[in-house]
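user: can you give me the structure for this one chain? C-alpha cells are fine.
assistant: on it. calling the predictor now.
[tool input]
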Amino acid sequence: MDSTLKRTWAEIDLDALSHNYHMLREKIGSEVKFLGVVKADAYGHGSVQVSRLLQELGADYLAVSSIDEAVELRHNDITMPILILGHTPKEQVSQLIKYHITQAVTCKAKALEYSEEAVRCGGTLKIHIKVDTGMSRLGYLCDGDYFENGVEGICEGCSLPGLNAEGIFTHFAVSDEPGEQCRAYTEHQFQLFTDVITQVEERLGKHFAIRHCANTGAVARYPETYLDMVRPGLLLYGYGEFAEELNLKPVMSLKAAVSTIKTYPAGTAISYGGIYVTPHKTRIGVIPYGYADGFFRCLSNKCSIMTAEGPAPQRGKICMDMCMIDLTDKMGVDVGSEVEIFGKQNSINDLAALAGTIPYELTCAVSKRVPRIYYRDGKVIEKELLLRG
C-alpha cells in the first residue's frame, strides 16, 4: 500500500469535517437535530470513518441509500440511528429490524409490503414517510388534486401493524438555486409539506417525532424549514458556494506525484487525438491520475493541476490512467513532486464548474483504487485502500 500511496491519493481532513459540523451546529441551534448524509461512501470520503466521527461529535442521525450501506456501518460499531433514503426490497425487512435501521416509505404499496413482512417476522419497523412535494421522484404525491388521496394514503401507512412512523420528510428540488422563481418553488414545497403534516397529525391524533426537509440549500438559505432535523450533505464536506459563505473547509484533497517529465519540440501532438500541439519547446509532466481514477475526460485541455510553483495547465486528452501537464515555466517541479488535483489550493468548485457538474460528482467519482489517508489533529490516523487484498 505504501507504494500505491506514492501514485495518487486522497487526503481526508477529519479536523475540517469536525470544524464544519460545529459551524453548522451553531447555525441550526441546539434544539434542531443533525442528520449527517453518508450515502455513497460519504460521497467518496469513507462512510465508516465519517460516521465514526459524527457519532463521536454528537450527531443525531445518519442517512444512507441502501441496506448494504447501513449494515456496513452497523458492522463497524456505528450504533446511532440510520435512515435509508432509498429502496429496500421487502425480503430484507427482517434485516432492517435486526439492525435497528429506519426505512423511508414512499408509497402505499411499500407501506403494505413492509407492514406484512414486519408482522410476519414478529417485529416493528421504524419508518419515515416520504412526501413528494415537487421533486417528482420518490414519495406520496400530495400536490394539487393529489392532496386528499396523498394524505389519506399516509394516514393508512402510519396505522399499519408492524410499522412505527417516527418521522416524515420531503426533499427540496431547487433550494440551492438562485432567483425568485426558485425561492417561490421552495416556499411552495415547504408550505405543502407543512399542510400535509397538519392534516395527517390531526387525523391520526398524534405528532411525528421528527419532521425534516432542510437539505444543504435550505440549511444555508431557509432557516424557517429546519423543523426538527436538518440534512446537510454538500455543506458538511465543505464544498459549494454556501460552504464558502459559511467559512466551512473542504474535507478532501486529491493529490498525485509527477511520474515522468519530458521536453518536446514545437509541433508535438500530446496524447490521444492530438488535440493539443506544443506551440514551442515544452516541458511536459505525466501525472498518474486518469479517468479510471475519477478524472473526467471532458476536462481535457480545460483545467489546471496545482504545483508548488502555481497552476500547471493540463494538456491533451485525459487518459485512463494518467494525464499530462505543462511544466515549461515550472523548473522547480520535478519527478516525484507532489501536485494537487483539487483541495485546499485548487478549488473543487472551479473544477466542477469546468466539467459542467457539481462537486458531489467529482468526489463520488474518485475510484476505489485511489487510497484514502485520514488525518486528525494534523496526523495520519488511518490509511485505506478499497481494492481487494
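assistant: here you go. The two ends are 10 Å apart (CA to CA). The domain at 252-384 is CATH 2.40.37.10 (Lyase, Ornithine Decarboxylase; Chain A, domain 1).
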